[in-house]
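Write out structure tokens for Cell adhesion molecule 2.
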Amino acid sequence: ARVTEAHRGRYTCTVECPKYLSKRVNLKVYSFPERPKLELEPKDVYAGQTAHLTCSGYNIYPCDNAKVLWYQDDDLRKLLDPQIVYEDDRCNMTSKWSVLVNSSDERISFTCVIQLEDQIFARNTTLEIHLKTGLHELQLEPTTVRAQTGDELILNCSAQGSPQPVIEWKKDSQDHKIPPYWTITHEVGRSELRISHLSPADEGVYYCIITSGNSRAELNTSVDVHYGPRYTRIKGPEHDQ
């Protein structure tokens, strides 16, 4: 007969020869027709970036006491209770894990194991990824500035990468000579350039120079400084009457 969930239970076989002999068998029934599906976001992962993993199993039975084991390479990293959606006697299971990937290896693997009922039955899927290196998520804001003499200028530059990016600033062909009135602050993966009171001499193109190992990138923004009158008033003939 085709085994279904209804056949689960204890069975006893009894023989009379010449006395009664019996043997009991505990029948456990499982449904796990396909390996778990393992998905990665983002598709391209850089060293030092967070990888978001989703492990899904479908048409599973039994659903109680299930566990999801997460491995990075050969190391057990997480043991989680899955999210379960029931469909009659069977169910679908999902587990999510976010991990910061700091590895000197070019390749790294993640394995998801869905384990049913006291470790008796399990299926797994392994995903191997090739870590990217260098710079990514580069940003300089704002990209264009139109300001008035005396205004404050604030430029923000950010980047991600492995090794940790180094950010420097320059203006036009300044060749990294920083004027004393520039205020530059640095945080992990970002830098801010601030000029409290703009003058006509501050007009030009500002460069954010980012380096990470052998990778280098430049972002730039144009700053226009208007040095005419800030406020004007036109007096018409009606005001002379």
